[in-house]
Amino acid sequence: MTLEPLISDFYGFEAQLRDHEKAALAALRADLEQHIKPIVNDAWDKAEFPRQIIDVLHQHPTFGELWDETKTGDYSALYGGWTALELARIDASVATYVGVQNGLAMGSVGVCGSPEQRAEWLPKLRSGEVIGAFGLTEPLSGSDSAQGLRTTATPDGDDWVLNGQKRWIGNATFSDITIIWAKSTEDGQVKGFIVPTDTPGYVATKIERKQALRIVQNADITLTDVRVPNSLKLTNAESFKNTAGVLRLTRAEVAWAAVGTAIGAYEAAVAYTKERHQFGKPIAHHQLVQDLLARCLGKITASIALCVRVSQMLDNGEQRDEHASMAKAFATTSMREVVALCREVLGGNGIVLDYDVARFFADAEALYSYEGTREMNSLIVGRAITGVSAFV
Protein backbone atom coordinates (compact mmCIF):
# COMPACT_ATOMS: atom_id res chain seq x y z
CA MET A 1 0.00 0.00 0.00
CA THR A 2 1.35 3.41 -1.01
CA LEU A 3 1.72 6.13 1.60
CA GLU A 4 0.39 9.34 0.13
CA PRO A 5 2.11 12.45 1.53
CA LEU A 6 0.15 14.54 4.01
CA ILE A 7 -0.51 18.14 2.99
CA SER A 8 0.80 19.08 6.43
CA ASP A 9 4.17 17.31 5.98
CA PHE A 10 5.47 20.31 4.05
CA TYR A 11 9.14 19.28 4.15
CA GLY A 12 8.50 15.59 3.45
CA PHE A 13 9.75 14.16 6.74
CA GLU A 14 7.81 10.93 6.13
CA ALA A 15 10.38 10.08 3.47
CA GLN A 16 12.77 9.13 6.26
CA LEU A 17 10.67 6.07 7.09
CA ARG A 18 11.74 2.78 5.59
CA ASP A 19 9.61 1.16 2.89
CA HIS A 20 7.94 -1.42 5.14
CA GLU A 21 7.21 1.30 7.71
CA LYS A 22 5.57 3.45 5.05
CA ALA A 23 3.43 0.50 3.99
CA ALA A 24 2.40 -0.19 7.58
CA LEU A 25 1.57 3.47 8.16
CA ALA A 26 -0.48 3.57 4.97
CA ALA A 27 -2.47 0.53 6.10
CA LEU A 28 -3.09 2.12 9.50
CA ARG A 29 -4.20 5.37 7.85
CA ALA A 30 -6.65 3.50 5.62
CA ASP A 31 -8.25 1.70 8.57
CA LEU A 32 -8.46 4.89 10.60
CA GLU A 33 -10.13 6.72 7.73
CA GLN A 34 -12.57 3.90 7.02
CA HIS A 35 -13.48 2.54 10.45
CA ILE A 36 -12.74 5.22 13.04
CA LYS A 37 -13.01 8.71 11.54
CA PRO A 38 -16.73 8.33 10.69
CA ILE A 39 -17.67 7.57 14.32
CA VAL A 40 -15.47 9.82 16.44
CA ASN A 41 -17.63 12.94 16.50
CA ASP A 42 -20.65 10.98 17.68
CA ALA A 43 -18.56 9.10 20.27
CA TRP A 44 -17.04 12.39 21.46
CA ASP A 45 -20.47 13.97 21.76
CA LYS A 46 -21.74 11.02 23.84
CA ALA A 47 -18.49 10.74 25.84
CA GLU A 48 -18.35 7.05 25.00
CA PHE A 49 -15.43 4.83 24.01
CA PRO A 50 -16.34 2.75 20.93
CA ARG A 51 -15.00 -0.64 21.95
CA GLN A 52 -15.15 -1.93 18.37
CA ILE A 53 -12.07 0.13 17.50
CA ILE A 54 -9.86 -2.01 19.75
CA ASP A 55 -9.69 -4.87 17.26
CA VAL A 56 -9.07 -2.42 14.41
CA LEU A 57 -6.13 -0.85 16.23
CA HIS A 58 -4.50 -3.98 17.60
CA GLN A 59 -4.15 -5.68 14.23
CA HIS A 60 -1.51 -3.12 13.25
CA PRO A 61 2.17 -3.01 14.29
CA THR A 62 1.33 -0.14 16.60
CA PHE A 63 1.77 -1.95 19.90
CA GLY A 64 4.79 -3.48 21.59
CA GLU A 65 7.48 -2.73 19.04
CA LEU A 66 9.97 -1.75 21.76
CA TRP A 67 9.85 -5.18 23.37
CA ASP A 68 11.31 -8.41 22.02
CA GLU A 69 8.38 -10.38 23.42
CA THR A 70 5.88 -8.53 21.25
CA LYS A 71 7.69 -7.30 18.14
CA THR A 72 6.00 -8.12 14.86
CA GLY A 73 8.86 -6.83 12.74
CA ASP A 74 11.67 -4.32 12.55
CA TYR A 75 10.03 -0.99 13.35
CA SER A 76 11.79 2.11 14.62
CA ALA A 77 10.88 4.66 17.27
CA LEU A 78 10.51 7.07 14.36
CA TYR A 79 7.76 4.84 12.98
CA GLY A 80 6.18 4.73 16.44
CA GLY A 81 6.11 8.51 16.49
CA TRP A 82 4.45 8.69 13.10
CA THR A 83 1.77 6.25 14.23
CA ALA A 84 1.01 8.53 17.21
CA LEU A 85 0.70 11.45 14.80
CA GLU A 86 -1.50 9.44 12.44
CA LEU A 87 -3.82 8.38 15.26
CA ALA A 88 -4.13 11.90 16.65
CA ARG A 89 -4.85 13.51 13.29
CA ILE A 90 -7.99 11.38 13.28
CA ASP A 91 -8.74 11.79 16.99
CA ALA A 92 -6.65 12.66 20.03
CA SER A 93 -8.68 10.34 22.28
CA VAL A 94 -7.87 7.36 20.07
CA ALA A 95 -4.19 8.32 20.23
CA THR A 96 -4.49 8.57 24.01
CA TYR A 97 -5.96 5.06 24.27
CA VAL A 98 -2.98 3.73 22.33
CA GLY A 99 -0.56 5.84 24.36
CA VAL A 100 -1.89 4.46 27.63
CA GLN A 101 -2.01 0.85 26.44
CA ASN A 102 1.19 0.77 24.40
CA GLY A 103 3.30 3.34 26.21
CA LEU A 104 2.33 3.58 29.86
CA ALA A 105 0.92 0.13 30.65
CA MET A 106 3.19 -1.91 28.38
CA GLY A 107 6.07 0.45 29.10
CA SER A 108 5.74 -0.11 32.84
CA VAL A 109 5.94 -3.87 32.39
CA GLY A 110 8.63 -3.59 29.74
CA VAL A 111 10.88 -1.23 31.71
CA CYS A 112 10.20 -2.43 35.25
CA GLY A 113 8.95 -6.00 34.92
CA SER A 114 10.87 -9.21 35.46
CA PRO A 115 11.40 -11.55 32.49
CA GLU A 116 8.51 -13.65 33.80
CA GLN A 117 6.21 -10.62 34.09
CA ARG A 118 7.17 -9.42 30.65
CA ALA A 119 6.49 -12.84 29.14
CA GLU A 120 3.09 -13.10 30.83
CA TRP A 121 1.66 -9.63 30.33
CA LEU A 122 3.25 -7.96 27.30
CA PRO A 123 1.79 -10.31 24.64
CA LYS A 124 -1.69 -9.99 26.17
CA LEU A 125 -1.45 -6.20 26.21
CA ARG A 126 -0.10 -6.10 22.69
CA SER A 127 -2.96 -8.18 21.29
CA GLY A 128 -5.66 -6.31 23.21
CA GLU A 129 -6.64 -9.45 25.12
CA VAL A 130 -5.83 -7.44 28.25
CA ILE A 131 -6.54 -3.71 28.46
CA GLY A 132 -4.21 -1.72 30.70
CA ALA A 133 -4.26 1.58 32.57
CA PHE A 134 -1.58 3.60 34.36
CA GLY A 135 -2.29 4.87 37.86
CA LEU A 136 0.16 7.57 38.87
CA THR A 137 -1.70 10.88 39.19
CA GLU A 138 -3.68 11.47 42.38
CA PRO A 139 -6.33 14.01 43.48
CA LEU A 140 -3.65 15.95 45.38
CA SER A 141 -0.56 14.89 43.43
CA GLY A 142 0.21 15.62 39.78
CA SER A 143 3.40 17.44 38.89
CA ASP A 144 4.89 16.58 42.28
CA SER A 145 4.43 12.81 41.92
CA ALA A 146 8.12 12.17 42.59
CA GLN A 147 7.68 13.25 46.21
CA GLY A 148 3.97 13.77 46.70
CA LEU A 149 2.35 10.36 46.24
CA ARG A 150 -0.07 9.60 49.04
CA THR A 151 -1.10 6.11 47.94
CA THR A 152 0.69 3.62 50.16
CA ALA A 153 1.97 0.08 49.72
CA THR A 154 2.51 -1.93 52.88
CA PRO A 155 4.27 -5.31 52.78
CA ASP A 156 2.32 -8.06 54.53
CA GLY A 157 3.80 -11.53 54.28
CA ASP A 158 3.80 -12.53 50.62
CA ASP A 159 1.47 -9.66 49.69
CA TRP A 160 1.36 -5.91 49.47
CA VAL A 161 -1.63 -3.94 50.73
CA LEU A 162 -2.47 -0.79 48.74
CA ASN A 163 -4.48 2.15 50.05
CA GLY A 164 -5.14 5.51 48.42
CA GLN A 165 -6.71 7.29 45.49
CA LYS A 166 -5.83 7.95 41.86
CA ARG A 167 -7.32 10.48 39.43
CA TRP A 168 -7.45 11.09 35.67
CA ILE A 169 -6.59 7.46 34.90
CA GLY A 170 -7.24 6.79 31.21
CA ASN A 171 -8.85 3.49 30.12
CA ALA A 172 -9.58 2.78 33.78
CA THR A 173 -13.33 2.23 33.49
CA PHE A 174 -12.80 -0.83 31.30
CA SER A 175 -9.18 -1.89 31.95
CA ASP A 176 -8.36 -5.43 33.05
CA ILE A 177 -5.24 -4.34 34.90
CA THR A 178 -3.98 -1.00 36.18
CA ILE A 179 -0.37 -0.24 36.94
CA ILE A 180 -0.56 1.37 40.37
CA TRP A 181 2.34 3.46 41.66
CA ALA A 182 2.45 3.72 45.44
CA LYS A 183 4.88 4.78 48.14
CA SER A 184 6.20 1.94 50.30
CA THR A 185 5.57 2.35 54.01
CA GLU A 186 8.75 0.35 54.53
CA ASP A 187 11.37 2.48 52.78
CA GLY A 188 9.43 5.50 51.47
CA GLN A 189 10.27 4.68 47.85
CA VAL A 190 7.78 4.52 44.97
CA LYS A 191 6.93 0.99 43.82
CA GLY A 192 4.87 -0.26 40.89
CA PHE A 193 2.19 -2.98 40.95
CA ILE A 194 0.15 -4.84 38.34
CA VAL A 195 -3.31 -4.69 39.87
CA PRO A 196 -6.16 -6.73 38.32
CA THR A 197 -9.20 -4.49 38.37
CA ASP A 198 -11.44 -7.21 39.83
CA THR A 199 -9.35 -7.26 43.02
CA PRO A 200 -11.49 -6.64 46.13
CA GLY A 201 -11.19 -3.05 47.32
CA TYR A 202 -10.42 -1.64 43.85
CA VAL A 203 -13.12 0.77 42.62
CA ALA A 204 -12.96 2.88 39.42
CA THR A 205 -15.53 5.64 38.86
CA LYS A 206 -15.82 7.49 35.55
CA ILE A 207 -15.04 11.21 35.63
CA GLU A 208 -18.05 12.95 34.16
CA ARG A 209 -18.61 16.35 32.48
CA LYS A 210 -15.18 16.52 30.81
CA GLN A 211 -14.85 18.99 27.96
CA ALA A 212 -11.70 17.50 26.43
CA LEU A 213 -10.77 13.96 25.33
CA ARG A 214 -14.37 12.99 25.93
CA ILE A 215 -13.90 9.60 24.28
CA VAL A 216 -11.18 8.69 26.79
CA GLN A 217 -12.70 6.98 29.81
CA ASN A 218 -10.85 8.68 32.66
CA ALA A 219 -11.59 7.45 36.14
CA ASP A 220 -11.10 8.18 39.80
CA ILE A 221 -9.73 5.07 41.49
CA THR A 222 -10.15 4.24 45.15
CA LEU A 223 -7.91 1.55 46.69
CA THR A 224 -9.11 0.20 50.02
CA ASP A 225 -6.92 -2.55 51.48
CA VAL A 226 -6.25 -3.89 47.99
CA ARG A 227 -4.16 -7.00 48.44
CA VAL A 228 -1.64 -7.72 45.66
CA PRO A 229 0.68 -10.75 45.68
CA ASN A 230 4.40 -10.07 45.53
CA SER A 231 4.43 -11.76 42.10
CA LEU A 232 2.52 -8.72 40.78
CA LYS A 233 4.92 -6.17 42.17
CA LEU A 234 7.00 -4.89 39.25
CA THR A 235 10.37 -6.39 40.08
CA ASN A 236 12.48 -3.49 38.88
CA ALA A 237 10.26 -0.68 40.17
CA GLU A 238 12.11 0.36 43.30
CA SER A 239 11.99 4.17 43.15
CA PHE A 240 10.50 7.03 41.17
CA LYS A 241 13.55 6.89 38.91
CA ASN A 242 12.06 3.72 37.46
CA THR A 243 8.70 5.43 36.97
CA ALA A 244 10.51 8.27 35.21
CA GLY A 245 12.08 5.72 32.87
CA VAL A 246 8.59 4.79 31.67
CA LEU A 247 7.58 8.42 31.24
CA ARG A 248 10.75 9.13 29.29
CA LEU A 249 9.68 6.61 26.65
CA THR A 250 6.16 8.00 26.34
CA ARG A 251 6.69 11.77 26.61
CA ALA A 252 8.06 12.07 23.08
CA GLU A 253 5.03 10.22 21.70
CA VAL A 254 2.76 12.74 23.42
CA ALA A 255 4.66 15.37 21.45
CA TRP A 256 3.93 13.43 18.26
CA ALA A 257 0.27 13.18 19.24
CA ALA A 258 0.19 16.93 19.77
CA VAL A 259 1.47 17.42 16.24
CA GLY A 260 -1.21 15.04 14.97
CA THR A 261 -3.89 17.00 16.82
CA ALA A 262 -2.66 20.22 15.24
CA ILE A 263 -2.61 18.54 11.83
CA GLY A 264 -6.15 17.23 12.25
CA ALA A 265 -7.41 20.76 12.87
CA TYR A 266 -5.25 22.19 10.07
CA GLU A 267 -6.42 19.68 7.47
CA ALA A 268 -10.05 20.35 8.40
CA ALA A 269 -9.44 24.09 8.14
CA VAL A 270 -7.76 23.81 4.72
CA ALA A 271 -10.67 21.75 3.39
CA TYR A 272 -13.13 24.26 4.80
CA THR A 273 -11.47 27.21 3.07
CA LYS A 274 -12.09 25.58 -0.31
CA GLU A 275 -15.77 24.96 0.40
CA ARG A 276 -16.85 28.04 2.32
CA HIS A 277 -17.77 31.02 0.10
CA GLN A 278 -17.74 34.64 1.22
CA PHE A 279 -17.76 37.76 -0.95
CA GLY A 280 -18.46 35.65 -4.01
CA LYS A 281 -15.53 33.21 -3.80
CA PRO A 282 -14.04 30.47 -1.58
CA ILE A 283 -12.37 31.99 1.45
CA ALA A 284 -9.13 30.24 0.40
CA HIS A 285 -8.73 33.18 -2.02
CA HIS A 286 -8.48 35.71 0.79
CA GLN A 287 -5.07 36.93 1.91
CA LEU A 288 -5.80 36.91 5.64
CA VAL A 289 -7.02 33.31 5.48
CA GLN A 290 -3.87 32.22 3.66
CA ASP A 291 -1.80 34.01 6.30
CA LEU A 292 -3.51 32.03 9.07
CA LEU A 293 -2.90 28.75 7.25
CA ALA A 294 0.75 29.59 6.58
CA ARG A 295 1.28 30.37 10.27
CA CYS A 296 -0.27 27.01 11.19
CA LEU A 297 1.92 25.11 8.74
CA GLY A 298 5.09 26.76 10.04
CA LYS A 299 4.31 25.71 13.62
CA ILE A 300 3.43 22.19 12.51
CA THR A 301 6.61 21.85 10.45
CA ALA A 302 8.85 23.02 13.30
CA SER A 303 7.16 20.57 15.66
CA ILE A 304 7.57 17.64 13.27
CA ALA A 305 11.26 18.46 12.94
CA LEU A 306 11.74 18.34 16.71
CA CYS A 307 9.81 15.10 17.03
CA VAL A 308 11.67 13.40 14.19
CA ARG A 309 15.00 14.20 15.78
CA VAL A 310 13.92 13.07 19.25
CA SER A 311 12.74 9.72 17.86
CA GLN A 312 15.98 9.29 15.93
CA MET A 313 17.88 9.92 19.17
CA LEU A 314 15.78 7.26 20.91
CA ASP A 315 16.58 4.81 18.10
CA ASN A 316 20.28 5.62 18.54
CA GLY A 317 20.21 5.36 22.34
CA GLU A 318 20.98 9.08 22.67
CA GLN A 319 17.71 10.51 23.97
CA ARG A 320 17.73 12.11 27.42
CA ASP A 321 14.91 13.48 29.55
CA GLU A 322 15.50 17.05 28.41
CA HIS A 323 15.22 16.07 24.74
CA ALA A 324 11.77 14.54 25.18
CA SER A 325 10.72 17.38 27.49
CA MET A 326 11.64 20.08 24.98
CA ALA A 327 9.71 18.29 22.25
CA LYS A 328 6.65 17.86 24.46
CA ALA A 329 6.65 21.46 25.69
CA PHE A 330 7.20 22.96 22.23
CA ALA A 331 4.85 20.69 20.31
CA THR A 332 1.95 21.09 22.74
CA THR A 333 2.37 24.86 22.90
CA SER A 334 2.45 25.04 19.10
CA MET A 335 -0.56 22.72 18.90
CA ARG A 336 -2.55 25.01 21.17
CA GLU A 337 -1.76 27.96 18.92
CA VAL A 338 -2.56 26.05 15.72
CA VAL A 339 -5.97 24.79 16.84
CA ALA A 340 -6.90 28.34 17.88
CA LEU A 341 -5.90 29.70 14.47
CA CYS A 342 -7.87 26.93 12.76
CA ARG A 343 -10.91 27.78 14.88
CA GLU A 344 -10.48 31.36 13.68
CA VAL A 345 -10.43 30.23 10.05
CA LEU A 346 -13.83 28.57 10.49
CA GLY A 347 -15.43 31.52 12.24
CA GLY A 348 -18.65 30.52 14.00
CA ASN A 349 -18.53 27.03 12.48
CA GLY A 350 -15.30 26.48 14.40
CA ILE A 351 -17.32 25.72 17.54
CA VAL A 352 -19.61 23.18 15.85
CA LEU A 353 -18.62 19.52 16.22
CA ASP A 354 -19.67 18.64 12.66
CA TYR A 355 -16.65 20.50 11.26
CA ASP A 356 -14.09 18.59 13.41
CA VAL A 357 -12.03 21.63 14.43
CA ALA A 358 -14.05 22.13 17.64
CA ARG A 359 -13.10 18.62 18.79
CA PHE A 360 -9.41 19.15 18.11
CA PHE A 361 -9.60 22.59 19.74
CA ALA A 362 -11.05 21.15 22.97
CA ASP A 363 -8.86 18.05 23.05
CA ALA A 364 -5.70 20.11 22.69
CA GLU A 365 -6.19 21.43 26.23
CA ALA A 366 -5.76 17.96 27.71
CA LEU A 367 -2.64 17.12 25.71
CA TYR A 368 -1.18 20.47 26.75
CA SER A 369 -1.32 19.37 30.40
CA TYR A 370 -0.89 15.62 30.67
CA GLU A 371 2.46 13.80 30.95
CA GLY A 372 4.13 16.96 32.19
CA THR A 373 2.89 20.52 31.91
CA ARG A 374 4.80 23.02 29.80
CA GLU A 375 6.23 24.55 32.97
CA MET A 376 7.49 21.23 34.37
CA ASN A 377 9.05 20.22 31.07
CA SER A 378 10.64 23.66 30.77
CA LEU A 379 12.28 23.14 34.15
CA ILE A 380 13.71 19.83 32.99
CA VAL A 381 15.19 21.60 29.96
CA GLY A 382 16.33 24.51 32.14
CA ARG A 383 18.17 22.14 34.45
CA ALA A 384 20.03 20.73 31.44
CA ILE A 385 20.90 24.23 30.25
CA THR A 386 22.17 25.61 33.55
CA GLY A 387 23.17 22.54 35.52
CA VAL A 388 20.99 23.82 38.35
CA SER A 389 17.64 22.37 39.41
CA ALA A 390 14.89 24.95 39.95
CA PHE A 391 12.29 22.43 41.15
CA VAL A 392 10.78 23.28 44.53
TrEMBL record:
PROSITE patterns: ACYL_COA_DH_2 (PS00073). Gene3D superfamilies: Acyl-CoA dehydrogenase/oxidase, N-terminal domain, Butyryl-CoA Dehydrogenase, subunit A, domain 2, Butyryl-CoA Dehydrogenase, subunit A, domain 3. This is Glutaryl-CoA dehydrogenase. Its cofactor is FAD. It comes from the Bacteria. Residues 245-385 form the Acyl-CoA dehydrogenase/oxidase C-terminal domain. Residues 19-129 form the Acyl-CoA dehydrogenase/oxidase N-terminal domain. One of its GO terms (molecular function) is flavin adenine dinucleotide binding. Residues 133-226 form the Acyl-CoA oxidase/dehydrogenase middle domain. One of its GO terms (biological process) is fatty acid beta-oxidation. The keyword Iron-sulfur does not apply. Belongs to the acyl-CoA dehydrogenase family. Keywords: FAD, Flavoprotein, Oxidoreductase.
